[in-house]
Specification:
heterodimer; A: 890 residues; mainly alpha; Rossmann fold; two-stranded antiparallel sheet; 50 helices; disordered N terminus; B: 88 residues; alpha+beta; Alpha-Beta Plaits; 4-stranded antiparallel beta sheet; 1 helix
């Protein structure tokens, strides 16, 4: 979209000051006096010179300032933030990188994350900065108001916000007044005083300031500057202005309509026609006006109007783009509808849409074409540009355009139905659409178009459908056939669609145990220099091929290459996904410290990935810290994760979080708590998502096995049978290994030693070649015992020896940090408590410990209190003695 | 809907005490958002709830801000009355 940034930029310049504007020192002082407060509100009806006033203050003040003229179309949170970032970037090039990443995230992050990231970035820039949002009354979106409230809740020193609006915005202004955090410029301040009105008149027309005529004007216009300016313009060529004024009816002096008509009469008919016809445009440049009017004189007309200061506002420094004063534009539009017939107006809109569409502004062009009653042309325009939006993942804008098309027309157009289906995939809107796509009649319609790209797109959807099933049978053969057809039909420019097709093609090939073929194919495609998003998709499926196959040696390599590529392409979201593969490779091979080191750098970018990957990223940290016995850390990440999954309102993700919570309790040694935590949900209701790295069912079954009892064992058996079928279907070897290991434990609980042995061997077959030992470690001491028994039956098994070694090493660690006298209770010392116990042994005072650990004395006291309670002692000396007894203090 | 003829002198910038009646209950949390107007929720004879908002607003921009907020909350406005004006 070559020119769209030009149009966006027009919103980012503050209006140029008219030469005949009156310097209003008292008001400027009032604005100046409030600059230390967080907020200035300039609220008055249209035409009082609000923007001019703020602009002249900013010109005089010379503080860095960012300006955004808000449009009605900015009412989508994502678009508003993009515009706001654009405004601040005009001052600080490169501002808001983190926020920008979030705006391009695969899923919209939780609001507070977006707000706080932006606010955080604001705190980091050089101060002071004044941010002005002009025409803020156009904002109706509550989330945007919510953002402003959040911004003002904890004001940043040196950042001053100016809101210009026609009426009070729904912000807690009353509270701000009580708190004294708001500076207000309202109608009573901004309207011209009698002296100012008189001065203004004197500067522009020759009138005696004491004359009856002047008094009449001043009284009737009530300091309304637009009224005064219109009056001045209407009297410009009058030889006897005084006489004319006295002749005017009182109501006429007050009437915008009357005054506008008077003013227009002063102009040549050509210029008059120019203004009336171009009033349909919110923003315009000479080329657009020429196209609209079929003339070549627009440049000259615009220059003339600018010289006359005729309610025209230049929008960029090169004086290429302009807009009319809003109030004046409304009047001219009314005149347009009065003077021209509907079909002429439609023709004008049609030409505007035509020019804007072919000059890169699809959305504004689309709106004009709709007003031109040319919905079919508008739809064609959208179709022409939609791939751009898709490749850039701009789903909000994509959807806001489709919303404007009547349902009846969408129903008849198979391409538009495909578009709606994408909004279902990415925004979860219009959920009923998918059913239509699998309908044979619909597919025939697409085939009939003979449009290869469209047919290719249909194949992409169908391969997705056959892989997931959506309530119907999963069919990998069909999935592969559709994906192959799609990749054949879609050229390299269809990067988004090709990337999407690759994912499901890859999944289906894995399911058919063609992992090696997939790897060969993937690497071959990569060597062909595929475009960015397709390359990233290829890396992703290569990694999935290795992960599903539990081929950890290859995964180690492929995930590192994936990380590297994502980094090189500055693909932050994919870097997160790539690091997840690497981290879970480390986890499965029990390199726990590496897990944390891999995730820490991508943790700040977790909101950029899909929600399921977000859970995997944080999950790795939770599991890693818990495995290292760092339960404070594990729990704090868990809390953050819980907040996120709750905000996503996604039950499956929340269940994953519960499972992680139970895992932490389990690793702490608190088995009953782990069981309770998971018992809140019915495991049977949830199946895994194929893209998860951690399977909640493992935790469910494990807790059931540890809880024991015939009912629990029966439930465990049923869950294991179900997941075995599921993983076999997708050829998910890694999770199958986990499943076998759990089945072995179940068999042992059922006293079937032979069967347990058999299942262990199944699990070992998958895990051994990869050194995948964590599966066994995660299953706890019951697995330890089982493997010890197994070890006695075989001559030599280095792999099992390694697992048993880790178990005994962990055992030693655990003795150090848990109190063995009550393993079923909560009595586990946290890392901090351990540190404090160590310092108590060195006979440090609370104050000294506080200094040592950089925490307050109060916190030390709190920790020692908990510590005494857990060790069941009453004082520091007995705590140290007990610590030595338990081996916590060496 | 301005009903009182005594307040013809009200201009764009005059502060005044307004009473706005809407159908439905306005939550007290909204007080700061409606210029600090007091909210009384009353049950009418036909057992529907009405809210009476009373308070001083600085000017027409403030009044329109309140009306706009009520509109966005989908609360139908039944009347707007000027109870008193402050001449500047």
């Amino acid at each position: 979209m070559p020119n769209s940034h030009v149009l966006l930029r027009t919103k980012l310049y503050r209006p140029k000051l008219p030469t005949n504007h009156l310097k209003r020192n008292a008001l400027i002082e009032k604005l100046e006096a409030g600059v230390e407060l967080p907020l200035t509100l300039v609220a008055a009806s249209a035409g009082y010179g609000k923007s001019t006033l703020v602009s002249s203050w900013l010109t005089k003040n010379k503080t860095r300032s960012a300006w955004l003229s808000v449009h009605k179309s900015d009412n989508k949170l994502n678009l508003f933030f993009r515009a706001l970032l654009g405004a601040i970037k005009m001052v600080f090039d490169g501002f808001g990188k983190e926020t920008e990443l979030l705006l391009h995230a695969a899923e919209m992050p939780p609001l507070e994350v977006l707000y706080h990231t932006f606010i955080n970035e604001l705190t980091q820039i050089e101060k002071p900065l004044i941010i002005t949002l002009d025409d803020y009354h156009c904002i109706e979106n509550e989330d945007i108001h919510g953002f402003i409230i959040e911004l003002l809740q904890h004001p940043i020193e040196g950042i001053h916000l100016v809101l210009i609006c026609r009426f009070d915005p729904p912000l807690p202004l009353y509270k701000y007044r009580v708190d004294g955090t708001i500076n207000e410029v309202r109608t009573e301040h901004i309207c011209f005083s009698q002296a100012e009105s008189t001065l203004f008149l004197n500067q522009n027309i020759e009138l005696d300031s004491n004359s009856v005529a002047v008094q009449k004007i001043v009284a009737k216009t009530e300091g309304w500057v637009t009224g005064l300016r219109l009056l001045v313009l209407s009297l410009k060529n009058t030889t006897q202005p005084e006489k004319k004024i006295l002749k005017m009816e009182e109501e006429e002096l007050y009437s915008l309509e009357y005054l506008s008509e008077e003013v227009l009469q002063q102009l040549t008919s050509e210029l008059r026609e120019f203004i009336i016809k171009t009033s349909i445009l919110d923003e315009f440049n000479p080329a657009l006006c020429d196209h609209l009017l079929g003339t070549e004189s627009s440049q000259q007309h615009l220059k003339q109007l600018e010289e006359l200061e005729f309610f025209i506002i230049p929008l960029d420094h090169r004086h290429n783009w302009y807009r009319y004063h809003h109030l004046f534009q409304d009047q001219m539009l009314a005149m347009l509808h009065k003077n021209l017939n509907a079909s002429t107006i439609e023709t004008l809109h049609g030409r505007a849409g035509d020019w804007l569409g072919s000059n890169g502004n699809m959305s504004v062009g689309f709106d004009h074409l709709v007003q031109a009653n040319q919905m079919d042309v508008a739809i064609e325009l959208f179709k022409k540009h939609r791939k751009d939006f898709m490749n850039k993942m701009m789903w909000e804008l994509f959807y806001s355009t489709i919303e404007k098309i009547p349902n009846q027309m969408i129903k008849q157009d198979p391409e538009l139905i495909l578009c709606l289906a994408w909004t279902d995939v990415y925004l979860g809107k219009r959920k009923d659409v998918f059913k239509q796509i699998v309908n044979k009649g619909f597919q025939q319609k697409i085939l009939n178009t003979e449009n290869q790209l469209l047919i290719g797109e249909l194949h992409v959807f169908l391969s997705y459908h056959r892989y997931i099933g959506f309530g119907e049978t999963i069919d990998f053969n069909a999935c592969i056939a559709h994906a192959e057809a799609a990749l054949k039909l879609l050229d390299r420019n269809q990067a988004f669609l090709r990337g999407f097709a690759w994912i499901f093609y890859g999944g289906a090939l894995i399911a058919q145990q063609k992992n090696q073929y997939l790897l060969d194919l993937g690497y071959e495609e990569l060597s062909k220099n595929a475009p960015r998003s397709e390359r990233l998709s290829l890396h992703m499926i290569i990694n999935y091929a290795n992960w599903f196959d539990a081929n950890l040696a290859k995964l180690a390599l492929s995930s590192k290459v994936y990380c590297q590529t994502a980094k090189e392409l500055s693909a932050e979201s994919e870097f997160g996904t790539a690091s997840t593969f690497l981290a879970y490779y480390h986890y499965q091979t029990n390199n726990i410290k590496e897990v944390i080191e891999t995730i820490v750098p991508v943790y700040p970018h977790r909101f950029l990935t899909l929600a399921t990957h977000h859970v995997s990223i944080v999950g790795a940290l939770v599991l890693g810290h818990a495995e290292l016995g760092q339960f404070d850390e594990a729990e704090s990440f868990l809390d953050a994760l819980k907040q996120f999954t709750i905000s996503k309102n996604n039950a499956a993700l929340l269940v994953l979080t519960y499972a992680l919570e139970a895992e932490v309790a389990f690793k702490k040694g608190d088995r009953s708590m782990a069981f309770q935590l998971l018992n809140r949900v019915k495991a049977e209701d949830y199946v895994t998502t194929i893209s998860d790295f951690y399977y909640h069912n493992t935790s469910f079954v494990k807790m059931l096995l540890y809880a024991g009892g015939s009912e629990n064992l029966l439930r465990a058996a049923a869950l294991l049978d179900r997941s075995e079928k599921y993983f076999e279907q997708f050829n998910y070897q890694l999770f199958l290994a986990e499943n076998w290991a759990l089945k072995a434990l179940l068999a042992k609980e059922n006293k079937d030693v032979m069967l347990a042995q058999c299942y262990i061997e199944n699990a070992l077959q998958i895990t051994k070649p990869s050194g995948m030992i964590q599966v066994f470690i995660d299953l706890g001491d019951k697995m330890n015992t089982l493997l010890q028994t197994y070890r006695l039956t075989v001559d030599q098994d280095y792999f099992v020896d390694r697992v048993l070694n880790v178990f005994s090493a962990n055992e030693l660690d655990r003795i150090k940090i848990t109190t063995p006298f009550d393993s079923n209770s909560n009595q586990v010392l946290t890392r901090r408590e351990n540190e404090i116990l160590g310092l108590l042994a060195e006979k440090l005072t609370n104050k000294e410990i506080g200094v040592h650990l950089n925490i307050s004395e109060e916190t030390v006291k709190r920790h020692t209190k908990n510590l005494y309670q857990k060790l069941q002692v009453k004082g520091r000396q007995s705590a140290v003695t007990r610590g030595v007894q338990l081996g916590i203090i060496v | 809907m301005l009903t009182n003829n005594h307040f013809k002198s009200i201009t764009q910038s005059s502060p005044a005490v307004y009473q706005i009646v809407v159908n439905g209950a306005v939550c007290l949390d909204h007080t700061p958002l409606i210029g600090g107007m007091q909210i009384i929720v009353a049950t009418t004879s036909i057992k529907t709830k009405q809210s009476i908002l009373t308070g001083r607003l600085s000017d027409q921009a403030a009044l329109h801000g309140v009306l706009n907020h009520l509109y966005n909350m989908r609360l139908p406005v039944i009347s707007v009355e000027v109870l008193g004006s402050y001449q500047q």
